[in-house]
């Protein structure tokens, strides 16, 4: 018997997701984004069925000539954005990119220094995540509360004392750039390497509104390709150190991936081209929106972090909602109002507050991509005030949020289907129907 009911439910749920998250909600998750129609269109391709183990033109499989050419091209396009010709797109996620680099830089039992968790370190940098899984010991650098950043003087001292194999900067929750130059100098002076994790800020770096860590001494930059960089979910590593590039290249396969999910490569190439054309305008607008959003929230009585430093220079805004009942409650109420956010530990929260931290981490990159500008940040801040301060019924606000969102359904800073319709592209689905 064919289970038509379950089959139907699969399609219904997926369709409901598409409608809800692409058309009806204001998404402020700082680690998400959407692809352009052209990138999405090319994403549905036959490469999703195929293997190509190894490096381009040196594969262990036959049938790879098109992915070989595409992968070399995409590595090169991505490299142009960060001004390096050493790129590896085979890690299937940011975490896998970190794993490959960390594994090459240190043996189990050796030490790495990482940015303090308060300064935004990702779980993969820590003993609880990938670093721990690899048996590498974590030494956390000290935190400067006033500047909400790594304490440079104390960090340099620790690096000189411990002589770790490598340092990791970059993170998941940060408003201001980490001190790459100073930490690079210190770690190099003891024979170690600097890894910068640009998962969150890759789109700001390619848009030239955030510093390029490769230019300030980072030996490798790892990243996801789907946060501020609006590509398909995936990972990438950029290098400035040739030996490291070669060594990591030898370990991604066979240690960390077999298939590297080839179908994302052409979509990543499309997004790289979009970023060359529109990336600067996109990134500038993101930072303007984030700043304005922070100011509007503060003006309505919210406690916004980073005030003395102008709130933010990234795509993120950090809000302390402990006066409103804490992060868990605030995030749930906002979801009922069709505003999607995540609760987050703030720099001063104890680690055990993870279930109900004080904060919300907000990112404006996806709404910027849908065309929102500074005045729209004022509208969203008003929704926040109504739900979280004035205690209005979130179901009522939800309707207004969806109405507001309905004016912003088109992806900006990217290519449309019309832009690519003349290219003789045969999508995979048409060949199977
Ligand atoms: C999101 C994130 C990652 C993990 O990326 P995935 O692509 O989800 O594996 C790694 N590092 C940082 C700093 C992140 O924010």
Protein described:
The protein folds into two domains: 26-36 and 278-405, Alpha-Beta Complex (Aspartate Aminotransferase, domain 1); 46-262, Aspartate Aminotransferase, domain 2 (3-Layer(aba) Sandwich), CATH 3.40.640.10. The protein is of the alpha/beta class and 433 residues long. Helix content is 44%, strand content 13%. It is globular and about 60 Å long. Bound molecules: pyridoxal-5'-phosphate (PLP). Pyridoxal-5'-phosphate binds next to helix 4.
Secondary structure elements and pairings:
Layout: H1 4-24, E1 26-27, H2 37-43, E2 54-55, E3 58-59, H3 65-82, E4 87-88, H4 94-105, E5 111-114, H5 130-133, E6 137-140, E7 143-144, E8 149-150, H6 152-162, E9 166-169, H7 180-189, E10 193-197, H8 202-206, E11 220-224, E12 235-239, H9 242-256, H10 264-299, E13 303-304, E14 316-320, H11 327-336, E15 339-340, E16 342-344, E17 359-363, H12 365-369, H13 374-389, H14 394-405, H15 417-420, H16 428-432
Parallel strand pairs: 1-15, 5-6, 5-9, 9-10, 10-11
Antiparallel strand pairs: 2-3, 4-12, 7-8, 11-12, 13-14, 14-17, 16-17
The structure holds pyridoxal-5'-phosphate.
């Amino acid at each position: 018997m064919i289970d038509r009911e379950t089959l139907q439910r699969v399609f219904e749920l997926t369709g409901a997701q598409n409608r809800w998250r692409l058309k009806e909600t204001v998404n402020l998750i700082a680690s998400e984004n959407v692809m352009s129609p052209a990138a999405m269109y090319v994403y549905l391709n036959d490469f999703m069925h195929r293997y190509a183990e190894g490096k381009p033109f040196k594969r262990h499989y036959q049938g790879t000539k098109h992915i070989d050419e595409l992968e070399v091209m995409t590595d090169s396009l991505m490299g142009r954005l960060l001004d390096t010709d050493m790129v590896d797109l085979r890690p299937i996620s940011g975490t896998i990119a970190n794993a490959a680099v960390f594994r090459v830089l240190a043996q189990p039992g050796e030490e790495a220094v990482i940015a303090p968790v308060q300064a935004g370190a990702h779980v993969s940098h820590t003993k609880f995540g990938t670093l721990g899984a690899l048996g590498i010991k974590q030494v956390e650098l000290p935190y400067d509360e006033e500047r909400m950043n790594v304490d440079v003087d104390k960090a340099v001292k620790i690096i000189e004392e411990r002589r770790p194999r490598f340092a990791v900067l970059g993170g998941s929750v940060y408003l201001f750039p980490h001190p790459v130059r100073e930490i690079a100098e210190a770690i190099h002076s003891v024979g170690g390497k600097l890894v910068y994790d640009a998962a969150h800020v890759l789109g700001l770096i390619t848009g030239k509104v955030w510093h390029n860590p490769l230019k300030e001494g980072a030996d490798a930059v790892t990243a996801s390709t789907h946060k501020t960089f609006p590509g398909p979910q995936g990972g990438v590593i950029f290098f400035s150190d040739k030996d490291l590039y070669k060594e990591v290249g030898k370990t991604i396969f066979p240690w960390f991936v077999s298939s590297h999910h080839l179908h994302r490569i052409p979509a990543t190439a499309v997004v790289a081209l979009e970023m060359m054309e529109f990336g600067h305008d996109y990134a500038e607008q993101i930072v303007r929106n984030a700043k304005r959003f922070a100011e509007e929230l503060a003006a309505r009585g919210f406690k916004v972090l980073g005030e003395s430093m102008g709130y933010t220079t990234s795509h993120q805004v950090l809000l302390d909602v402990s006066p409103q009942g804490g992060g868990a409650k605030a995030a749930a109420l906002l979801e009922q109002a069709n505003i999607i956010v995540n609760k987050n530990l703030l720099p001063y929260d104890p680690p055990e507050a993870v279930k109900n931290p004080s904060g919300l981490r907000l990112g404006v990159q996806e709404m910027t991509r849908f065309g929102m500008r500074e005045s729209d940040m004022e509208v969203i801040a008003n929704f926040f005030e109504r739900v979280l301060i004035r205690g209005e019924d979130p179901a009522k606000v939800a309707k207004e949020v969806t109405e507001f969102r309905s004016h912003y359904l088109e992806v900006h800073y990217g290519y449309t289907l019309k832009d690519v319709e003349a290219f003789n592209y045969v999508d995979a689905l048409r060949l199977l129907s």
